[in-house]
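Fig. S4 source data, part A: sequence.
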Amino acid sequence: MAFFGQAISTLSTLVIALGAGLGVWDVVNLLEGYGQDNPGANAHGIEADTNTIV
């Protein structure tokens, strides 16, 4: 019976480690995605509007 107790303990540890790794991976993916929702990040300068009449 001790064998099954040890096996369950080991599998529990592995499942917890796998869940933590996936959680960290999700957080990294979320933080990477936030860099693409800022249109101002693509504005490298102000272009002159040549279609306006002064």
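Fig. S4 source data, part B ends here. The mean pLDDT is 81.
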